[in-house]
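Sample log: Putative transposase.
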Amino acid sequence: MQNGYIESFNGKFRDECLNEHWFEDLAHARRLISEWRVDYNEQRPHSSLDYQTPLEFASAFRRQITESTTNDITRSRLD
């Protein structure tokens, strides 16, 4: 076990997606995996992100960076 985060993701992916479906062909596999990925990244809260979805976490992080940058620019103009 080299990377616990990757191992955890791989286990969830296998248990919740790969083991749950019988793929008819490559197009079917791609569609179901894409649906699972969207659910995992945009719908499902993650405990490691304080029960936010990755999408919510990324949006909050971008807002924080933007606000920080705006505050830095405002402070430098006042100096």
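Observation: Residues 4-78 form one domain.
Observation: The CA atoms of residues 18 and 33 lie 8 Å apart.
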